[in-house]
Design brief:
By secondary structure, this protein is of the alpha+beta class. The protein has helices spanning about 1-5, 10-15, 35-40, 45-65, 125, 145-160, 165; strands at about 15-25, 75, 80, 85-90, 95-100, 110-115, 175-180, 185-190, 195-205, 210-215. The chain has a five-stranded antiparallel sheet with strand order 6-10-9-8-7, covered by helices on one side. The chain has a three-stranded antiparallel sheet with strand order 1-5-4. One of its GO terms (biological process) is enterobactin biosynthetic process.
């Protein structure tokens, strides 16, 4: 599974993004410093492994764009990166992924990995009625898992953008984001702010999906 995700590196590099992948089963998976160790110490064993795998994936993503990074502590649930460094982290089923932007690129950051498909019944938690036409079995149709993952990735990118703190109330759930087709990608943005839209690439990985924001969309749909 790691290999399938890692195969996406060239296409993401072309978009100005570095990809990092790590597995919870890697040997000698130790914290990179005392702050990481303190954050991981109270976690249950499985969560601790996922947390540390996510940090390794983030360092690998940053290294892929030419940036070294030591330990990555956290504030609340969010990672805290040194100045000039940032990455988006996700993990699922023992695999962690991260994306980081190249130093000379002003790109929104957001990724999501979902290796366990969602049931069709989850539709009502992800979509509103005006988005249900996106669902389908044909080449132009998207699965519930793909749409969920795309919105998760977009939410991370939009929450980390300029002025995001002031606008957090605009997105209370994934249903407050509207998804639409954009070639072979999806465009996703807050319903309350149709000009703030990002483009999300969604790739199937085994029975699951990996989603990554690859840029902004200019203007409303």
């Amino acid at each position: 599974m790691c290999g399938q995700v890692a195969a996406l590196r060239p296409s993401l590099a072309a978009a100005g993004l570095g990809l990092g992948v790590a597995a919870v089963c890697e040997p000698e998976a130790e914290p990179a410093g005392p702050a990481e160790a303190a954050a991981a110490a109270p976690m249950p064993p499985r969560r601790r492994l996922e947390f540390l795998a996510g940090r390794r994936a983030a360092r690998r993503a940053l290294r892929a764009v030419g940036l070294e990074c030591g330990e990555i502590p956290r504030s609340g649930r969010l990672p805290v990166f040194p100045p000039g460094r940032a990455a988006s982290i996700s993990h699922s089923a023992g695999i962690a992924v991260a994306v980081a932007r190249a130093p000379d690129r002003d790109l929104p950051l957001g990724c999501d990995l979902e290796l366990r498909p969602l049931p069709r019944g989850a539709t009502r938690l992800v979509l509103r009625a005006d988005e249900e036409a996106l669902l389908g079995a044909g080449p132009a149709g998207w699965s519930v898992t793909e749409l969920f993952s795309a919105k998760e990735a977009a939410w991370k990118a939009l929450a980390g953008g300029p002025g995001a703190g002031r606008r957090a109330g605009a997105v209370g759930s994934l249903r407050d984001l509207r998804a639409g087709p954009d070639g072979d990608c999806l465009r996703v943005g807050p319903r309350a702010e149709p000009a703030r839209v990002v483009r999300v690439r969604v790739v199937r990985v085994g029975a699951g999906v990996f989603s990554c924001v690859v840029g902004r969309v200019d203007g409303p749909e």
